[in-house]
Amino acid sequence: MTELIHRSASELASLISSKEVSSQEVTKAFFDRSEALNSVTNSYLHLSRENAMAAAKAADEATARGEAHSVLHGVPIAVKDNLTTTDAPTTSGSNILKGWVPQYDATVVTKLRRGGLPILGKTNLDEFAMGSSTEYSAFGPSRNPWDLDRIPGGSGGGSSSAVSGFLAPIAIGSDTGGSIRFPAAVTGSVGAKPTYGAVSRYGLIALASSLDQIGPVSNTVLDSALLQDVISGHDPMDSTSLPQSLGSMADAVRNADPKGLRVGVVKQLSSDGFQPGVKELFEDTVAKLQAAGAEVVEVDCPSFEYAVAAYYLILPAEASSNLAKFDSVRFGLRVTPDGNPTIERVMAATREAGFGPEVKRRIILGTYALSSGYYDAYYGSAQKVRTLIQQDLAKAFAKVDVLLTPTAPTTAFKIGEKVNDPLAMYLNDIATIPANLAGIPGMSVPNGLAKEDGLPSGVQILAPQMQDAQMYRVGAIIEKLYAAQWGGPLIAQAPKLEAK
Amino acid sequence: MAKESLMPYAEAIEKFEVVIGLEVHVELNTKSKMFCGCANIFGNEANTNVCPVCIGLPGSLPAVNKKAVESSIAIGLALGCQIAPTGRFSRKNYFYPDLAKNFQTSQYDEPIAFEGKLSIELETGEVFEVLIERAHMEEDAGKLTHVGGSTGRIQGAEYSLVDYNRAGVPLVEIVTKPIFGAGDKAPELAAAYVHAIRDIVKSMNVSDAKMERGNVRCDANVSLRPKGQEKLGTRTETKNVNSLRSVENAVRYEIQRQAYILSQGGTITQETRHWHEDRGYTSAGRPKSDADDYRYFPEPDLVPVQPSAAWIEEIRATLPENPAVRKKRLQAAWGFADLEFRDVVNSDLLDQVEATVAAGASPQSARKWWTGELARIANSLGQDIAELAITPTQVAKIQTLIDSGELTDRLARDVVAGVLAGEGEPEAVIEKRGLKVVTDEGALIAAIDQALASQPDVLEKIREGKVQAAGAVIGAVMQAMRGQADAARVRELVLERANA
C-alpha cells in the first residue's frame, strides 16, 4: 500500500469513508511528517495538532454513525494564514498581526470544519499576500521541495510547498494576481482560482478586494475540484459572492472528454519572454491536446499588454485602503514611540515597525494612485484597461471554450534572486493577472520539467466567467494525457525530503 | 479661546450678501446597523453592540442593510429628489481612531438621491425654496471620549476612549445647493430648514429625530461676498451645531465674524469651526481646503445598489403627507388661531389632537384637553405626554359626555384621573366612581328648596332682584350634590324656585 501521505485527497476520502483508515491515522501521518520537515520547507507558520486531532476524532465518529459531512470528509487540510481561524493565530505573514487570534472563522474555514476536514495548520505567505516567492513573509521564506534553494512561488508558497512536499494532501490558497497558480506551477502541483465570487471572501484578510479569490491547492485536478465543491457557494456575509451555484467541479473532472473542445492560444502570452524550456513544454501541451482531438486556434488579446501595469495600480490602490485598519487601536501590534504618544504618532510608529518593505511600497503606490489629481490618470485608466481586457476575453471566448497559456514565464527562481528587483518579481504574474482583472477562473496544471533546470512548469487554463467546470474539464484532460506519458503524476518525480 | 470681533448684524447684512449651505446628517432608526447585524440602539454600555464588521477586524466584509436603503430612498423621495437607478458606495479614506477601518463607507459620485427641493416657510410667512443637491447613504463613526485635559477635546487629553456602538449606524447626509438671497433671514432659514428635515424624517418614522441625541446633526457652511460681486466668498463649515437654536445662532455669529474680518481687509480661512453653545461663538477647527484628499474610490466589497422602479414606487406610496403641508391643512380645518396652533405644534401634540378630533371631539376641546389638563398631568408626573395612559379615543369619549351634559368639567377630570389610574374605559370609571351628573330634577329641587329655606336672607335678596346673591345657594346645592350636578341648570332652578 502506498504511504498515506502520498495518497491523493480523493483516495484518502474513499479510504476514510470505507473505514479502511481513520481520519485520525491520516491526520497523524501528516503531522508526523510536518513536524519533522517543516523546519526544512517552512511551509507552516503554525501547526495545530491538538485541534486537528480532535476534529479528526469527531470526523471518525461521524463516519462510524454512517455520516459523511462532505466529499472530503476526514481529509486533513492546510489553510493559508490570511484566513481567519478562531483556534490558531492568523498573521497574514506580517509582524503587525503576530499572535493575533481572531474572534471569528472565515466562511471557508467554517465550511471546512462543517465538512469534517481537520485543519493541520496555517501556511506561510508573502506579507499580506504581496509577493511571488514568500520572501516577503515576516517569518522567513518557504522552500521549494524540488530544490530547497528555490522559491515555492508566492504568495501562497506555504500551501504549495506543503502540498508538493506531502506535508498536507490539500490546501487552501488565495489568488489576487496568481498567488495560487504561480506556486502550483513552480512546485509541480495543481492550483485553481475560481470565478470571482464563487467562494466567499469573508474572513480572508483582504489584499485587493476586487481581485482576491480563495481557491484550492492540490496534487491532482480531481482534488482541487472536490475542494472547490466544498468551499464554494453564496455567502450573505460577502456581498460580492455569486448567488448562483456553478455546479459540481468533481463531475466535470470525472466526465472530462476532449471531444469538441476548442482551445485558444493567446498570441500575447506565447511568444517572447518565456524561458525556452517552459515555452517548449507549453507547445508540447498544445500539441498533445490537438492530437487528442481538440481544435486549437490563436486568439488576440491586445490589452493583455497593459494588464500588469493596470494591476499594479488597482491592487495597491485597494490595498492601501484595506490596510488602513492596521492602526494599533483595536488589535495587533502597538508601538509607542518615545515622547508624547499622540494617536497619530502611535499609528505611524506601529505601521512603520509592523509592515515590511513590499507592503509599504504598495501602500505608497496605492495612496499616490488614488490621490486627487492623479486618480483619473492612474486608478481611472487602470479600470479602463480592466474593461478592455474583459472585452478582449469576451471576443476570444466567443471563438473558444478555454484559453491556454504558460502559467509563469520561468520555473522556480533562486531565493534572493529577485527580492531586490520588484519589477522582475511583478512580471512573474504576467500570465495570471488577466484572470483576476476579468474575474474569470484560471488554473495551473503541471506539464513537465523544463529542459534547462529540470524544474516543474505549469500550463494555465482560463475559462469564461462562471464556467469553472469547463476549466476543470480541460485540466483533467491535460492531466490524463501527461499521466499516460509519465506513468503517474509529475509530483511522484519530486526529490524525497529529508529532515535536517 | 476668546470671542473674535464681530460686526453688528444689521451692518453686516447691509454690506454683504450671505450664502449658506447646509449638510444635515440623519441617523436612521433601523433595527440593525448599515453593514452588519449589530443592534442600532442608543445608550447601551460601550462596545456591546459590536462585531468584526463594525470594528473593522481583518477579513470582515460589509453587507448592505436593505431597510436602510429603503429609508434612504424614502427620504430622497420626501425631499422631491430623483432616485439613482444605480448607486455605488465609495470609500472615504482618512485616519481617525473613531473610524474602525480608517475609511468611511459612504457615497461619492453616485448618491442614491439627487436634485430635490424643499419649501421652507418662516414664521413671518415668507417662503424660501431650498434646492437639495443630494442625499446619500453612509455609516456613522464611533464615539470618542477624551479623558483628562480641560477642554474635553482631543488636544490636551491624557487618553481617549472609543465606543464603537455607533460605528456603522446608518446615516443619510442631505446636502443643499448654495442658498442665496435669504439676506438677514439666513440664520432663521437655516434653522427652519433643519427643523423641516427633522419633522419630515420624524413623520416618516425613519429616524428617532432627536437632535439632543445626535439623530439629526447639522454642519452649516457660511460665506459672504460684497454685494454685487459674482464670485463666491471663502466659506467656513461650522460643525457641532446640534440644536435648532444653535443653527440659527451659529450662522448669525459666522456672518458677523466674517463680515468684521472682511471689512478690515482680512481674508477668511477655509476651515471647519466648532460651535460653542454655552458661550455662543465658533472657534477654528482643523483647516480644510479643497486639497483635503479623502482618496475616494468605489467600495470594492459592495455591489452597487440598484433599486427597481417598482420598489421605488412602492416606497413612494408609503410616504406620509409632508409635515408642513399637513400643518397648514390641519390649522385650516380646525380653525385655530396662530397662537393656538403653534402651542399644539410646539408641544408636539398634532397627532394626539388629530386623533382626538377624528374620534369625535371638537378641535377646540381636543386642543384644550391636550395642551391643558393632560399636559399639566404629564408635567407633574415628569412624563412624556405621548406616554400618558390615555388614548385620544378615550379623551374624545369623555368630551362627548361633557357635550351631552352627562359629565361636568370637574367630573370629567375625575374620569381622566380614573382612566390614568388604570380603572378602565371612561364609562367603567364613571360607573365605579359614581360620577354621573344628577339629572333627577326632583332631587335637585328638594336640595334647592332646603338651601333657600336655610338662607332666608339670600332668598330675600334674590327676590329683590340681586341675582348674584344666588351664588351662595348654588354653592350649597352643588356641595349637597357632591358636585355631580350641572351648575347652569342649578342656577336656573334656584332663580325659578326663589321667585316661585
Index terms:
heterodimer; A: 500 residues; alpha/beta; Amidase signature (AS) enzymes; eleven-stranded mixed β-sheet; 16 helices; 39% helix; B: 500 residues; alpha+beta; Arc Repressor Mutant, subunit A; 3 domains; nine-stranded mixed β-sheet; three-stranded antiparallel β-sheet; 19% strand; elongated
Break the fold down into its secondary structure elements and pairings:
The complex is a heterodimer of chains A (about 500) and B (about 500).
Chain A: H1 9-17, H2 23-41, E1 44-47, H3 49-64, E2 77-80, H4 107-114, E3 119-123, H5 157-164, E4 170-175, H6 181-186, E5 190-193, E6 213-218, H7 221-231, H8 249-254, E7 262-266, H9 276-291, E8 295-299, H10 307-322, H11 343-354, H12 357-370, H13 376-399, E9 402-406, H14 422-426, H15 433-438, E10 442-449, E11 456-462, H16 468-486
Parallel strand pairs in A: 2-3, 2-4, 7-8, 7-9
Antiparallel strand pairs in A: 1-3, 4-6, 5-6, 5-10, 9-11, 10-11
Helix pairs in contact in A: 2-3, 10-12, 10-13
Chain B: H1 9-15, E1 16-27, H2 66-78, E2 82-83, E3 90-93, E4 103-106, E5 113-121, E6 127-139, E7 143-147, E8 159-163, E9 170-176, H3 186-203, E10 216-226, E11 236-241, H4 244-263, E12 271-276, E13 281-287, E14 297-298, H5 309-317, H6 323-334, H7 338-346, H8 350-358, H9 363-381, H10 392-403, H11 409-420, H12 426-433, H13 441-454, H14 456-463, H15 470-480, H16 487-498
Parallel strand pairs in B: 11-12
Antiparallel strand pairs in B: 1-9, 1-10, 2-5, 3-4, 3-14, 5-6, 6-9, 7-8, 10-11, 12-13
Helix pairs in contact in B: 1-4, 3-4, 8-9, 8-10, 10-11, 11-12, 13-15, 13-16, 15-16
